[in-house]
Amino acid sequence: MPRPGPDNPYRRVLAAPHVLSLTAAAVVARLPAGMGAIALIIYVHEQTGSFAAAGAAAGAFTIGLGATGPLLGRLVDRRGPRPILVPFALLSAAAFVAVPILGGLGAGTVPMVAAATVAGGAMPPLGGLLRKLWPSLVEPPLLITAYVVDAVTIEIFFIAGPLLTGLLAATAGAAEALLAAAAFGVAGTIWFVASPVIAAVDPSPPHQHTRAGALASPAIRVLVLTGVPLGATFGALDVALPAFGAAHGSTALGGAFTASLATGSALGALVYGASPQRFGDAAQVCVRLAILQPLMVLPLLLAPSVAAMLVLGMVAGSFIAPTITARSQIVQSSLPPGTGTEAFTWLTLAVVVGASAGSALAGPLVQAEGWRAGVLLAAALPAVGLPLILARRGLLRRAVAAGAPVAIPAVATTEGD
To answer: What single DSSP character describes residue 203?
Structure first.
């Protein structure tokens, strides 16, 4: 583990000006991303009694979240963040509120799915913007550590979001979880935008505006394509884990199981960040974790109890944050000028499209065959991307090598070092 004290790279990242406030605001603003899918699954299942309908709503939310991300990211790059972030946060919140209103009126599945699509589609691209800003917030030797911190903060809202959703669903109701997601999104975005760092972000100059944008980079195109099967695991588990909970007492347990994935992801990030040089360069990390991902999901099939599923969930999630960190490093090394926010949101689009497909496929499968079929699907889908990432691993390594040099943080691994 990193040595405590002023030289600890995590401490140095968080002590940099404005970093702590920005990351805290981003966590609050992105809580709806951690709450949305599971809250929709619980609420729509309660209203319709169908995991297929619930999976469709969750899939619509996640595909909406990703499908508009690159467009909103491009708007942020070209017009600046302030004219874009708050208006879209308000639109997303209104759609979250609309879901329980429509459910209460008995409007049926289709209108709720449509509202879920807008709730995801209007969510502002704070994550992409924050990743774009990291090189300007910290010193170059701390950039890998900063991306690890960023990955851990993602897991914070993916831990807190499902836990809060499960708690609210079990006590107040799933509708209240959707309303809370709306409130967090607006409050956090306003807090984020109030930072002087955001005020200082200028639009990209017109000569950097191109049709291809971030996709002009071959390495980013590979990451986008291989991100779809990566995300498919998450979407399938979003349905399979609540179904496991239903088989053991309550669908609301799905929040705790999803949080266990995020906890494992955060622990994986800390292990990776403590000594990243042991894992190879960013391209090697992406390839190796893509191979290991299905093998880390399959043990979920062995879970005999709620407690066992919580433990196995942490194992299954441990690859997530290191993968995000490595993919962020490659993007930072290969993004075209003026496309920072857009480039990172393309990665989000890939993952959430995969998650949407995973949810949509898992819904009827789990409804017909049970939760284990969903877990098998979650393990099988990532294998689709393996041929491409193996074939293009040389391209990814060249992208890393061609990028600006980034020093590995000097982190002690034992007290005696």
So the answer is: P
What is the three-class DSSP state of 413? coil
CA distance 118 to 216: 28
What is the separation, in whole angstroms, between the first and last Cα of the chain? 11
Amino acid (1-letter code) at residue 255 = G
- Residue 396 in 3-state DSSP? helix
Q: Which two tokens stand for residue 226?
A: 């291989």
State yes or no: pLDDT of 148 exceeds 80: yes
The closest of 9, 313, 40 to 138, measured between CA atoms, is: 9
- Alpha carbons within 13 angstroms on the beta-carbon side of residue 48 total 25
Scanning the structure block, which residue is given the tokens 């994986």? 268
pLDDT greater than 60 at residue 91: yes
Closest CA to 318 of 344, 356, 292: 292
Three-state SS for 373? Answer: helix
Say how far apart CA 341 and CA 128 lie, in whole Å: 5
Do 153 and 13 form a contact (C-beta atoms < 8 A)?
no
Using an 8 Å Cβ cutoff, are 358 and 234 in contact? Answer: yes
Query: How does residue 175 score in pLDDT terms, banded at 50, 70 and 90?
Result: very high
d(CA 25, CA 415): 34
Residue range 388-404, pLDDT digits in tens = 988 888 888 888 877 64
Give CA–CA dist 77/62, Å, rounded.
23
**For position 217, what pLDDT does the model report?**
87
Q: Are 174 and 36 in contact (CB under 8 A)?
A: no
Token pair for residue 363?
A: 């819904």
Which band of pLDDT confidence, cut at 50, 70 and 90, is reported for residue 207?
A: low
| CB atoms inside a 10 Å sphere around CB 179 | 18
Helix and strand totals (H; E) in the chain:
20, 0
**222/201: higher pLDDT:** 222
Question: Residue 193 in contact with residue 29, Cβ under 8 Å?
Answer: no
Whether the Cβ atoms of residue 42 and residue 242 lie closer than 8 Å to each other: yes
The length of the chain, given as a count of residues: 417
Distance CA 174, CA 192 (A): 27
What's the token pair of residue 187? 């409050």
Secondary structure class of 45 (helix, strand, coil): helix
Cα–Cα–Cα angle for 385, 225, 92, rounded to 5 degrees: 120
Task: Say how far apart CA 377 and CA 362 lie, in whole Å.
Answer: 7
The token pair at 375 is 């877990």
